[in-house]
Each structure stands twice: as structure tokens, then as C-alpha cells.
Design goal:
With 278 residues, the protein is of the alpha/beta class. It has 8 helices and 9 strands. A 5-stranded mixed β-barrel has the order 5-8-7-6-9, surrounded by 4 helices. The longest helix has 16 residues.
Length: 278
Amino acid sequence: MNTHNSEILYLDPIGTAETAAAEIAKRTGVAQHHIALVAGSGWVSAIDALGKPTHEFNTEEIPGFLPPTVVGQSGKIRSYELMGESGPIRILIFLGRTHLYEGKGVEPVVHGVRTAVKAGCKVIILTNACGGINTNYQVGQPVLIRDHISLTATSPLIGADFVDLTDLYSKRIRAIVKNEDNSLAEGVYVHWRGPAYETPAEIRMMRTIGADLVGMSTVPEAIAAHSLGAEVLGISLVTNAAAGVTGEKLNHEEVIAAGKAAADRMGALLASVIPKLL
């Protein structure tokens, strides 16, 4: 099914998400998934640590999804079954995402999380590769997002939809994850539209306003998922020092390499934490 060329799909974004969720249920034979995870650049190797999925298919085969354009994102949707503390948990994983910088608008960016919620997911895990603004962070270090700053002036919400974001990145879930690994830091993530990396002056500005991390994803998805009632966990993998921190130039290849290097730790963390989140 080739649906990604039809902009009319996004005229009814919630309806499109419901249609996509129904198609996923049909393909997997699973009426309800419980947790969804969006894998950022370099995270595919970590996802492989969860074992063999029960189902896998291309994202663009599902209504409303676009094929990936970013190196390091495979453009697959997987369904897993893991054993939780109170029984089997069905996990929906998106290996890749659409970004604002692709110029397709915000609806394709948040379509995955909306679909996940309509598929039954109560918890949405958003992962990303990011630049470390906080000089205490090391390349390859995972950081839990506790709050964000949006510098894109873009929201997935339209109209008088006043959603409280005080606990956008769930305190309950962050506590569970930190109980599993108390060495994890927490930080404030800045959403930068991209695709150009930030300038050193822009990074100094971000540090001044309280940012620890900077990346080109996650925030619209978090808002969209939260507005539909899901709990959100954000995990950033520091794949490079932000512009001007070390004086080195930035490139996407080092992002992918850092993700692969940290795959074992990230995979182990996800495998141990996911069954405890419901």
C-alpha cells in the first residue's frame, strides 16, 4: 500500500492514526499493544537486543507513514512480546521517524505516536541521538529527559487545545528507570529544527537558558502523545559534544558510530526497564 504521497491523509490526523492502528492490528494479529518505542538515529542496534520480533514490516506500507530519509533509521515497524511482571506485554517499535527538517509538516512527524496510542499504547518511549551541551556529559552517555525547550515555534496541537505539560516526561517512569540504573543523569532537551547543526553562539545561548542537550526530534512527538493521554519517557544518547564545546566539527557519521558503540548498554537498559513500566 503506497500511501505516503497523499497529503489528504493528514486532513484528519486522528482518523488516519486510527486507520493505521487498525492496519497494524490486522498485520500482527494483536488487538492491543501496550508500550511503543520510537528509535532515534543509531538506536537500531540497541533495539536488536530485545530479541526477535514477532512481526516486522516497512513503515510506508501503513497509512500515513513516510519512508525514512535519514541514514541510521531503517524504516521498519516491529511488534515484540516481552514478559512483564503481570503477564505478556506487547511492544510496538518504530525504527525511524519523520523530522520537521524534512519539510513535510508536523503531522507526519507525530503520526507514529498517535498511531501507537490508537493501537492501545499507554506508554510511549522516545529515544534520540543528541548533542551534549552540558560539559559534564560524555559521548555515549544516556540521559533521561526531564523537561524540554522548543526553539521551533511548532506544535502538533491546533486550536484551543490547552494541554498541561508540567509532567510531560513522566516522573513515575523516570523513577522506575533510575531505580534500574541510578547512574543515569537527567537533563533539559532543546528541540532544534535542523538540518543544519547549531552554531557555537547558538549553543552558548541554549546553555544560558538552561539546556543540557540539543537535538532535532522528540518534542512534537512527546506533546502529541501526552495530549492523547499516554505517559512519555524520553531518553537521549549523547553522540557528540555540541558545537563549540570541543572545537571539533560535527557530522552525522559520528552520531551513528556512537550509537552502535553504546548499543549493548542501551539494549540492556531497555530490556530490563520496559517490562516494569505498566
